[in-house]
Amino acid sequence: MWGWLIPVAYLLGTFPSAVLVARASGVDIRSVGSGNPGASNVARVLGWRKGIWVFVLDAAKGALAAGLGLAVGISSGANFIGALIAQERLGSEAIVATVFSDDNKKYLSTDLVCEEPSMAGYISPDIEMFGYQTIGRIPQAAAISS
């Protein structure tokens, strides 16, 4: 399902914005200045306007990659559903545990008091939670001294 992310991430990471901006000006940026295909070398060789273009394109690559990462990051809900599926496949005698390690900040914009309709094919309407155990953080001083 998320297999498309690998080629997209690869293409984002290898997009040579400095090389393309310099090539549009007839320059191989890898063979002039410091040889580094980056915004500062483009700015030194071709001027600050071209350097800004490279900087903006590189920042956009980073923002897009971060946005994709936020969109598909593993949340507590995904961990919980994964644990349920593992429990189902391993059988009722298996003990399955999961760790909810995110801080739930991404859910601040979610309307948690709104009733959601049950959708066909969702497993959440069939889930009944019998209990849970919370484990507090280990104080840093105790962790260092052990």
Explained architecture:
The protein has 146 residues and is mainly α. It has 2 domains: 5-72; 76-107 and 121-145, no CATH class. The chain is 49% helix and 0% strand. It has 6 helices and no strands. The protein has helices at 5-14, 17-24, 39-46, 48-72, 76-90, 140-145. The longest helix is centred in the middle third of the chain and has 25 residues, at 48-72. The radius of gyration is 24 Å and the shape is elongated. It starts with a helix and ends with a helix.
Strand percentage, roughly?
under 5%
Mean pLDDT: 76
Number of helices: 6
Determine the structural class based on helices, strands and strand pairing: mainly alpha
Uncertain runs: none
State the major sheet.
Answer: none
The total count of strands amounts to 0
End-to-end separation = 43 Å
Backbone shape: elongated
State the share of residues found in helices, binned by percent: 40-55%
Order of helices and strands: HHHHHH
Tally of individual domains: 2
Question: Rg from C-alpha positions?
Answer: 24 Å
Overview in brief:
This protein has 146 residues and is mainly alpha-helical. It has helices spanning 5-14, 17-24, 39-46, 48-72, 76-90, 140-145.
Q: Which properties best describe this structure?
A:
0% strand, 6 helices, 146 residues, mainly alpha, single chain
Topology (elements, then pairings):
Layout: H1 5-14, H2 17-24, H3 39-46, H4 48-72, H5 76-90, H6 140-145
Helix pairs in contact: 1-4, 2-4, 3-4
